[in-house]
């Protein structure tokens, strides 16, 4: 069942990602023109032009990303004691690392840097890193976790403190595979991942009964008062793709019962702590 969910999610993303949608619509317009449906082709290309110009000129993608990144605030006060630090994979570039025979890191590198910082604050707890290959045709990339281990140790974390899980292909599997590895099943764990990824991650953790303190990093959107017309299409698309992917993921995980809520929110106790 999990294999079917994984493959289906890849197919759907191939159809519905913003860049894919643009290509599919261009193909549709071309077919309509060849079939002499001129009016329909004009309407679609006009809508595409308006959407494309909006994406080029202004960071409209922030309207999708910002609500995800602000759903859970950065904790102002951390507890004196925790049972571990959970870090979700995504910072490492497995395919490039295997190709060039050295550990390569991507946009989400802050996950590793923040894990290293937190490991110094809590020197006696394990750092639990979870993440395998999410590629359909290359499932066996780095099954020993050498890339993530290299990156984490380079960041200053003692190798002996690492618990590395390499089977997970998506966020649901991240938590499914690490649950048996946790030192305390009813423990309290800091969860480090990208800010836009926190709501879905927290929802899955709650569904599986794993108590986590969300620690968002790797912010991608700008605050409302910092948005302006800049005509930077590439930068805007880099925000749009993960934001749209995350909203689709939240919906799919909720429909299939993998998360506690469609858009999880902080517990009331967390809100009270922040206000105090």
TrEMBL record:
InterPro entries: Cell_Envelope_Assoc, DUF218, Rossmann-like_a/b/a_fold
Source organism, top-level taxon: Bacteria
Keyword Transmembrane found: yes
Residues of the DUF218 domain: 83-249
Keyword annotations of the record: Membrane, Transmembrane, Transmembrane helix
Keyword Membrane: yes
Transmembrane segment boundaries: 12-35, 47-66
UniProt-listed GO biological process terms: Gram-negative-bacterium-type cell wall biogenesis; peptidoglycan metabolic process
A single GO cellular-component term on record: plasma membrane
Protein name: DUF218 domain-containing protein
Protein's organism: Methylophaga thiooxydans DMS010
